[in-house]
Amino acid sequence: MKDLTNSPQDRQNILNNRYALEQAQAYLNLGGLIFENELVFTKHQVAELFDISDATIERYLSNHAEELKSNGYRVFRGKKLKEFKDLYFGTLIHEGTKTTMLGIFNFRAFINLSMLLTESEKAKILRSRLLDIVLDVISQRSGGHTKFINQRDEDYLLASIQGENYRHKFTESVGKFVEGTTWRYSRLTNIIYQIIFQENATEYKKILKLASNDNLRDTLYSEVLNLIASFEAGISEEIEKMSTNLGRKLTTKEAENLILEFGSHSLYKPFILDARTKMASRDLCFRDALHHKLEAYISSVPETDFEKFLGEKSLALEERLSNPETLDVLKRLKDR
Question: Which domain holds residue 152?
Answer without folding.
Answer: 146-335
